[in-house]
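Please describe the entry underneath.
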Amino acid sequence: MKPLIAEEVLKYMTDLLLYYLEQLADIDSNSEQQFLYGEKTAYTECLEVVQYWEKAKEYGLDFNIEKRYPL
């Protein structure tokens, strides 16, 4: 893999985290799968940090993450 510029890395990470959250959409705090709930929480927090990026809206982070993927 060739080195990527920061914008490419953030775009890749955003897409990957959104994909993971889609896979975990049905997991909640009452789930018996607490490890998966921890993953969902971590991915949500990571995306909330990425939203500070000046180009976040251009790359699909123009919504409230916790409303779409409630914890």
